[in-house]
Amino acid sequence: MSPAVIHIVDDDESLRTALVRLVEALGHEARGYATTGDFLLNLPEDRHGCVLLDVQLPGPSGLDLQAALGGKGIALPVIVMTGHPDVAASVRAMKAGAVDFLTKPIDRPALLEALSHALTRDLTRRTAAAEAEALRSRFAGLSTVERNVFDGIVVGRLNKQIADDLGIAERTVKLHRARLMEKLGVDSAAELGRLAERLTLAGVE
Question: Where does the pLDDT of residue 1 fall: very low under 50, low under 70, confident under 90, or very high at 90 and above?
Fold first, then answer.
C-alpha cells in the first residue's frame, strides 16, 4: 500500500513545517496548506490519509473547511487543532465527525495517537467501500431471472413456489439457484440471506 497522505492546514508556517517533518519521519507523505482556499484549490486525489486542520485560519475557518469537505464528498478523517480552546468549536467539530480535537502546543503522543485513530478509520472505511463495490459488481452479474430467484430464496420461498411465481419449471429454478449461488460465492440459503442484508446496506435493491 502507498504511504498515507496527511494534509496539514495551518497558517502558522513554523508549526506547519514542523508537522510536515514529523509526518514524513513517520513514513507518511505530508502536504501543507496555509489557508482553506489553498486546500480547496488543490483538492486531494482519493488516497488513504487524513487532515490535520487548524480552527483559526485567515478567511474561511477550519470548521468551514471541515463542512466543505463533507459537501464535496471528501470523506478523509479530520483532526482539529487550535491554540485557543473553545468548547463550542470543539463540540461543533466532533459533531461534524472529527476524530480528535488537539490543543496547541501540540502534544506529540496525543498527535501520534490521533493520527493512528484517523488512519485506521480511513482504512476501515475504504475497505468497507471496496467490499461493497465488489458485492454490487457480483450482484450486477446476475440475470433478471436469477435476481427473481434470489429474491424468492431470501424471503423463504421454496423452489416449487418460486417456479409457480415465475411461471417456469422447478428444475429451471434449481438451475438458476445453483448458478446465482456460484456467481455470488455462497453455499447456502442462510448465506444468501446474510448477503441480501449486506446488499441492502450497500444500497442495492
Answer: low
Question: Phi-psi category of 27—alpha, beta or left, where left has phi over 0 and alpha has psi -120 to 50?
Answer: left
* Rounded CA separation 13/107 (Å): 18
2-44: pLDDT as tens digits: 789 999 999 999 999 999 999 999 999 999 999 999 999 988 8
- CATH number of the domain residue 166 falls in: 1.10.10.10
Cell of 69: 469537505
DSSP string for 152-205: HHHTT--HHHHHHHHTS-HHHHHHHHHHHHHHHT--SHHHHHHHHHHHHHTT--
Which residues form the domain of 146? Answer: 141-201
- Peptide linkage before 105 cis (omega within 30 of 0): yes
CA 6/CA 29 separation, integer angstroms:
6
Q: Which long-range contacts (CB under 8 A, 24 or more apart) does 21-25 make?
A: 22/108, 22/111, 23/115
Same domain, yes or no: 61 and 106: yes
